[in-house]
């Protein structure tokens, strides 16, 4: 079968339509001479800049994209100011005198509990009222008593500074101690230790017994006043348990400072009595009423 012959250029017929035409060699030369092919040049900046625009004008077909559903995001919560920031804001608006007062209170806040602990368990200053310890304390009570004596009381339960060799505080005759009164526990009294456990005490008014043996873990306390009616002591409520004793007087601060030495009680010497205002043998009659260790008992110790 012979190959098909190319048709000359002409108008298309109505029966067949062709998308391409085959030109004769002469016609192809004529057309090529009329529209020469432009030389190839590197793309310029304007061409590169217009490329995205042309790409946007004629978008390329894109691949189908899968859409993923994201959970709805909750709106962020508003930041609430803290309590400290609110306090600082309110504090800045306060007047200057009130702010100064707050500063002082802030400084005193840690000092107050330390002071309370120190006064309750270490050292405490007390004022002596009443005539029960005259003339050793409140010497001018009978004449022109205007100011009470001030004493320093050791409240530490281990005696001294609490060193290992002083783990126990022993009570001795002649010591001046503070204690809760058995007649009124809310009242703190101050008296002198006269008798220890096992001592036989010759009592005085208003005690109904002529003599009394101090039981174990108790002491006999009396005031220094000569008149028994001026002192409410063991002659009224009997021996005092050492559990009621709260401290020991170690010094007199006012009106004349002096350290108290309980050992001088047996000698009849009063501390600081250089001119013998209290006599040569202070309260000798009281010591004569004590029969030491009439019954053998262990001495009391505050642990």
UniProtKB/TrEMBL annotation:
<dbReference type="InterPro" id="IPR000223">
    <property type="entry name" value="Pept_S26A_signal_pept_1"/>
</dbReference>
<dbReference type="GO" id="GO:0006465">
    <property type="term" value="P:signal peptide processing"/>
</dbReference>
<keyword id="KW-0496">Mitochondrion</keyword>
<keyword id="KW-0812">Transmembrane</keyword>
<dbReference type="Pfam" id="PF10502">
    <property type="entry name" value="Peptidase_S26"/>
</dbReference>
<feature type="active site">
    <location>
        <position position="191"/>
    </location>
</feature>
<dbReference type="GO" id="GO:0006627">
    <property type="term" value="P:protein processing involved in protein targeting to mitochondrion"/>
</dbReference>
<dbReference type="InterPro" id="IPR019533">
    <property type="entry name" value="Peptidase_S26"/>
</dbReference>
<keyword id="KW-0999">Mitochondrion inner membrane</keyword>
<dbReference type="GO" id="GO:0042720">
    <property type="term" value="C:mitochondrial inner membrane peptidase complex"/>
</dbReference>
<comment type="similarity">
    <text>Belongs to the peptidase S26 family. IMP2 subfamily.</text>
</comment>
<keyword id="KW-0472">Membrane</keyword>
<keyword id="KW-1133">Transmembrane helix</keyword>
<feature type="compositionally biased region" description="Low complexity">
    <location>
        <begin position="43"/>
        <end position="72"/>
    </location>
</feature>
<dbReference type="GO" id="GO:0004252">
    <property type="term" value="F:serine-type endopeptidase activity"/>
</dbReference>
<feature type="domain" description="Peptidase S26">
    <location>
        <begin position="103"/>
        <end position="204"/>
    </location>
</feature>
<feature type="region of interest" description="Disordered">
    <location>
        <begin position="1"/>
        <end position="85"/>
    </location>
</feature>
<feature type="active site">
    <location>
        <position position="132"/>
    </location>
</feature>
<feature type="compositionally biased region" description="Pro residues">
    <location>
        <begin position="1"/>
        <end position="11"/>
    </location>
</feature>
<dbReference type="InterPro" id="IPR036286">
    <property type="entry name" value="LexA/Signal_pep-like_sf"/>
</dbReference>
<protein>
    <recommendedName>
        <fullName>Mitochondrial inner membrane protease subunit 2</fullName>
    </recommendedName>
</protein>
<keyword id="KW-0378">Hydrolase</keyword>
<dbReference type="InterPro" id="IPR037730">
    <property type="entry name" value="IMP2"/>
</dbReference>
<keyword id="KW-0645">Protease</keyword>
